[in-house]
Amino acid sequence: MSVEVIIDNEYATLWYYPDAGIVHHKWKKYIYGEHFRAVLNRGAEIFEQRGATKWLSDDRLNSALPKDDGIWALGVWNPRVRAAGWKYWAVLFPDKKVGQTNLNYFMRESNVQGITAQAFDDLDEALNWLRSVDEAEKRPE
Q1: Which of 18, 21, 52, 94 could form an SS bridge with 47, CB 3.0 to 4.6 Å?
Q2: Taking Cα atoms as reference points, which of 126, 87, 83, 129 lies closest to residue 110?
Q3: What are the tens digits of pLDDT across the range 64-89?
Q4: Exposed, middle or buried by CB within 10 Å (0-12, 13-18, 19+), for 94?
Q5: Which pLDDT value is given to residue 25?
Q6: Residues 6+ apart with CB under 8 A from 34
Q7: Do the Cβ atoms of 78 and 111 come closer than 8 Å?
Q8: Which secondary-structure segment (H or E) carries 139?
Q9: In the structure, what pLDDT confidence band is assigned to residue 90 with cuts at 50, 70 and 90?
Q10: What's the CA angle centered on 110, arms 42 and 66, to 5 degrees?
Q11: Separation CA 14–CA 55 (nearest Å)
Q12: Cβ atoms of residues 108 and 91 within 8 Å
């Protein structure tokens, strides 16, 4: 599977898998505010410009978001990406319990809004699941 590096800095790496329509971020350390929003906004642009439908969040090195970032993510970013075609979300949870609780809340909210979200312990499992959901949609009834 081909992959493009979109962002790679001290806070995060953002990839795009054009063959599978997957945007994938990996937080390299605790991230919030302007750095957090810049990565998510760049991913949203990929959805809008390239027709992605899947997002892989590797949040293992992050923690709970500040309230302002959570409100922005659910109220501004999430509707933007959904409008651009977001259907599937694979999540690798933060190591810290507070971060897990926070992300669990975001996953529940996304499921309510029509995003199929699943948590994984392994990066390859998450990628394989995202690859497989397209194939399931293409199979005849």
Answers
A1: 52
A2: 87
A3: 788 999 899 989 999 999 999 999 99
A4: buried
A5: 97
A6: none
A7: no
A8: none
A9: very high
A10: 65
A11: 11
A12: no
